[in-house]
Amino acid sequence: MPNIAMLSCWNHYHAKSFVRDLALHPEAKIIAIWDDDLERGKTFAKEFGVRFEPDLTALLAMSSLDGVIINSSPEQASSLIEMAAKAYKHVLVDQVLALTLHEANRVAGWIRHSNIHFTIDMSLRHWPVNLAAKKVAITGAIGDITSIRIRNAHDGATGEVPLASRYLDTPYGVFTDLGAHCLYLMRWILGKPVAVTAITTRYTGHNAEDNAACLFEFANCAIAICDTSYSASQSPYSIELYGTSGSFLGGGATGVHRKLLQPSDSFVRYFTPDKEDSNDVQKAPTLSEAGESTLSLWLKAIQGQSELPTGVDDGIALAETLEALYLSAHTGRKVYLQDLNH
């Protein structure tokens, strides 16, 4: 039975989600929580019915501890991953490996040296609508992909129950959260871009961006648009692929921001000149079921039962993309990924 600890409850929404999902796996057990915010850590440890350990070094030194779920701020993630890897603990991290390519490569070295099972919760790769988009891309169903647009947004900064200040009064905002999903999906479908031009704005006046978009260029002349926001109400998730012989449009069936884990949560449309019924809507139930969760696959990997679909290379790719994006936004110029410091 893998014994798991959670390092930080910074994103309390995700912390609760991980604990709920762990409850579906009786072969695993969460045994402790650490948080650099003592009150937050104690509060969630009590809620989850586990002990709070304020000493991170002591927690990672526990021989009974097999792995950690890292649910920290984006800025803190790489240092926690490195500490866990040096302690030979398996790692599942929420969102990011690091925020720069150089930092990602350094931490990746420790992960590889420790030979641990490392994965990033790139959860949208399991959604039926995105699995359908990936299939369209790899099968050539709409020809060569010439452009793609992915949008993921909600009203966390402007809604009735706004996000806590820790999400908005930091150097990094929505592109390390909702927008990160757009970025890794883009690279999953199209591969590595050549350059990026980004715009980040602060609609609510906080330090971190809460409304942003970026345009990517690829070596084959394809382009990708990724846009994201904490300032958009009733904004359904959407993914659009345009090709030389058709297009694919997919997204949330309603404007409610939610996990699209059921085929009926989404809709898809195909437009191709080869089918008489090309303008008909292909109803969501025709989509495949959601893929197995990252958490489930990680627990299986720890027990020697499965391979991991996302790992160090995916984390490095996301860090590279984020660094280039923020550099573009801060300097107001196009940034070429080859120019980043490795």
How would you describe the overall organization of this protein?
The structure is a single chain. The chain has two domains: 137 residues, 3-Layer(aba) Sandwich (Rossmann fold); 176 residues, Dihydrodipicolinate Reductase, domain 2, CATH 3.30.360.10. About 3% of the residues have low confidence. By secondary structure, the chain is α/β, with parallel strands linked by helices. The protein has ten helices and 15 strands. Helix 4 packs parallel to helix 5, helix 6 runs parallel beside helix 8 and helix 8 crosses helix 10. Strands 14-13-12-11-7-10-9-8-15 form a nine-stranded mixed β-sheet. Helix content is 33%, strand content 23%.
**Major beta sheet summary:** 9 strands, mixed
The fraction of residues assigned to DSSP E strands is: 15-25%
Shape assignment: globular
Q: How many domains, in number, for the residues?
A: 2
From the coordinates shown, what is the CATH architecture of the largest domain? 2-Layer Sandwich
- Placed side by side, the strands forming the largest sheet appear as 14-13-12-11-7-10-9-8-15
**N- and C-termini, Cα separation:** 39 Å
Number of H- or I-type helical stretches: 10
- Uncertain stretches: 276-285
Approximate helicity band = 25-40%
Order of helices and strands: EHEHEHEHEHEHEHHEEEEEEEHHE
- What is the SS-derived class? alpha/beta
Mean pLDDT: 94
CATH topology of the largest domain, which one?
A: Dihydrodipicolinate Reductase, domain 2
Got a strand count? 15
Query: CATH homologous superfamily name of the largest domain?
Result: Dihydrodipicolinate Reductase, domain 2
Using the coordinates above, name the CATH class of the largest domain: Alpha Beta
Q: What value does the Rg take, in angstroms?
A: 20 Å
